[in-house]
Design goal:
mainly alpha
């Protein structure tokens, strides 16, 4: 084989290797973007805490931000740079009057803020169609592990000790226990007739969260 042919073969081989590497990189990037579900993990919590009446919903759009949709949320996002995105900065704001959501609402949980940062760092993908119930175990629901995180993300901003909307406190076990025992918790989260829907944004919790709340209540709402 001549030197020229050897060089041609080498160039072709290098090109194939680079193409394979590029395809693998693209596949990893696509998988990375899909690792956090916007539809079920990001949007509902922002809607429940920020896109409420008088704040950042489609009607009032406070400060020009409608945070009820992906497109609106992306106006406050810098894909690939979570901590420099406006939506994260206002969640982490030290000055209460500038924090989102503002007092007397409770701050967003640190776990959710970290999730938002990860979502943005991974490209802020508009991943939908992933909110179906998959492998939802309701056989041994725990108040601390299953119920509290949901209430913290969706309810405590309005129903905390400092601002108990409707006189309901969901930041303590006793407060949650009282509305679980009288049926208001299940009635509200399932949006049943005669109950105030919770979250009030109009979007119900996903089926797994709902079924865990119902199972916990049916078990006597234990402090487990």
């Amino acid at each position: 084989m001549t030197t020229t042919k050897i060089h041609k073969v080498a160039r072709v081989s290098l090109g194939v290797v680079m193409l394979i590497a590029c395809l693998q990189c693209t596949k990893r990037n696509e998988e990375d973007l899909k690792s956090i579900c916007f539809e079920s993990e990001i949007l509902p919590i922002i809607q429940a805490n920020c896109a409420t009446i008088g704040c950042h919903n489609s009607t009032t759009a406070a400060d020009g931000y409608d945070l009820s949709t992906y497109e609106g949320i992306m106006r406050a996002v810098k894909p690939g740079n979570g901590r420099d995105s406006k939506i994260v900065k206002v969640m982490l704001e030290d000055k209460e009057e500038k924090r989102m959501p503002p007092p007397p609402a409770a701050p967003m949980s640190s776990q959710f803020i970290e999730l938002v940062i990860q979502w943005i760092d991974k490209g802020a993908g508009h991943v939908v169609g992933c909110s179906l119930e998959v492998g939802c175990d309701t056989s041994s629901v725990s108040f601390s592990a299953d119920i509290t995180p949901v209430l913290n993300d969706f309810c405590v901003s309005c129903h905390n000790a400092s601002a108990p909307s409707g006189g309901v406190v969901l930041s303590t076990y006793n407060g949650v226990k009282s509305v679980a025992d009288d049926g208001r918790l299940v009635g509200s989260v399932f949006h049943l007739p005669g109950f105030s829907p919770m979250p009030p944004s109009g979007t119900r919790l996903d089926e797994c969260k709902l079924n865990k709340i119902k199972a916990w209540g049916n078990a006597g709402a234990p402090a487990n």
